[in-house]
Specification:
Layout: E1 3-4, E2 8-10, E3 13-15, H1 17-26, E4 33-38, H2 44-48, E5 54-59, E6 81-85, E7 91-93, E8 116-117, E9 130-136, H3 145-154, E10 156-167, H4 177-184, H5 194-203, E11 206-219, H6 220-224, H7 230-244, E12 255-257, E13 260-274
Parallel strand pairs: 1-7, 4-5, 4-9, 5-8, 9-10
Antiparallel strand pairs: 2-3, 6-7, 6-11, 10-13, 11-13, 12-13
Length: about 280
């Protein structure tokens, strides 16, 4: 039965439930020296600040040409978010528009204060520099996933952990769901299966310490705000509405909540340790 989720309040800010879940999973310690590798600005470094000794944020997004600004045709309230275990209870609370698309053009946005622009596959840090390394919805978007993962493991201390958050699909699920993702973001690299992601990690030279796989239900419109073009957003919106009315399945499991269109994604959190 759905029940409300409390939002974790920290000095000067509130942490949304999906981010709170990742923070709790990462188990940050007061003496941690943390590195976050992302494809653009994200909320994790700010959420970790105050929980660890030091946070270094790397923006590894590739330079992109600016998009032509467009005005959204409709404005929707984002409403609550429902985050659920695959067979568990639902949670309500705010959700930001992540995972993002390729993000704002690098040339026209500022880096977060203290962030470093660097190549995720060639990080400018010595071996074993960090006790906690995090990456969120970036592993399959910043070049070769195997090379990036080996870099994350290289800069992580032997007794530290690398925490990965990303989209996944079930081991028996097909890839049809990726069609919707690619309509929104043509650069979407494909959603790995849970088995494929764990095999990648093991082959890169790490032990998987913990794994948390869950589904989220989120409002469509904030997610569509990152679509590559408005026509693609209209196609996605139409297909999901058709599915709600009994049309072909998209894999997004859409439904109407409070007069708005919602859909689902499967996410995974993994804590891994270098061998």
């Amino acid at each position: 039965m759905p029940h409300p989720a409390t939002t974790l309040h920290e000095p000067g800010r509130a942490v949304a439930p999906h981010l709170r879940r990742l923070l709790e999973f990462a188990e940050p310690r007061a003496d941690d020296v943390c590195l976050d590798v992302a494809r653009g600005p994200g909320p994790l470094p700010a959420a970790l600040a105050g929980l660890v000794r030091q946070v270094t944020a790397v923006d590894a997004a590739s330079p992109r040409r600016p998009r032509t600004p467009r005005t959204p045709t409709t404005t929707f309230a984002t409403g609550p978010v429902r985050i659920a275990d695959l067979d568990g209870p639902l949670l309500d609370g705010p959700l930001d528009a992540v995972p993002p698309s390729a993000g704002s053009p690098l040339e026209v946005r500022r880096l977060p204060r203290g962030a470093v622009r660097a190549d995720a596959c060639a990080l400018p840090y010595q071996d074993r520099s960090f006790s906690l390394v995090t990456t969120r919805f970036a592993l399959f978007h910043l070049g070769c996933p195997e090379r990036m993962l080996r870099e994350l493991l290289r800069v992580c201390r032997r007794d530290g952990r690398v925490v990965i958050a990303d989209l996944v699909r079930g081991n028996t699920a097909g890839t049809d769901r990726d069609r919707i993702e690619r309509l929104r973001d043509p650069n979407h690299p494909g959603t790995p299966s849970i088995a494929g992601l764990t095999e990648l990690i093991v082959s890169a030279g790490a032990n998987i310490q913990r794994l948390d796989v869950f589904t989220i239900e989120r409002p469509l419109e904030p997610w569509l705000a990152g679509a590559s073009d408005p026509d693609a957003a209209d196609v996605i919106r139409t297909e999901l509405l058709d599915e709600v009315d009994g049309g072909p399945r998209t894999g997004a499991k859409p439904r109407i909540i409070g007069g708005e269109l919602w859909f689902t994604q499967s996410w995974a959190h993994l804590a891994v340790q270098p061998i």
